[in-house]
Amino acid sequence: MELSLYERLGGSEGITKIASDALDLHLKHPAIAPRYSKSNIPELKKAAANFFIMGTGGPNVYEGKDMLTTHKGMNISDVEFNAVIDDILQALEMNNVGQKEKEEVLFVLYSMKKEIVAV
Questions:
Q1: Sign of CA dihedral 75, 115, 107, 1
Q2: pLDDT at 64 over 90
Q3: Which InterPro entries does this one have (predicted)?
Q4: CATH number at residue 26
Q5: Is residue 4 part of a domain?
Q6: pTM of the full predicted structure?
């Protein structure tokens, strides 16, 4: 039996590191950094990690809003969405995540696009 994506990404510890690295990259990315200027970064990192943990088959520890509610009215562009994807891929690379797992994460991210872009 194959391990879940959650397990293959290193469980809660591995995913928390990936989410933290991705947010650090977002804060440096010129296309999206301004979106985070007034954010509580430690709180945002925790929420992102918890969402990612739950979404990959780990325990349901996420207590935040759904994607549509979170992004409604933000008018996020395709350029911004793609910048986030690029940063997440880089964070996966930084954490030595395998190609199969990267592809699975990409599939999940793109499946949420309609709830994030231009809503």
A1: positive
A2: no
A3: Globin-like_sf, Globin/Proto, Globin_bac-like_CS, Hemoglobin_trunc
A4: 1.10.490.10
A5: no
A6: 0.93
Render pLDDT for 68-79 as a digit per residue (tens, 0 to 9).
899 999 999 999
CA nearest to 20, candidates 41, 38, 37: 41
| Residue 29 known to bind ligand | no
Is the CB of residue 93 less than 8 Å from the CB of residue 103? no
pLDDT at position 6, please? 97
How many domains does the structure of the chain reveal?
A: 1
* Close Cβ partners of 70 (under 8 Å, ≥ 6 residues apart): 64
For residue 60, is it within any domain? yes
Token pair for 68: 């549509």
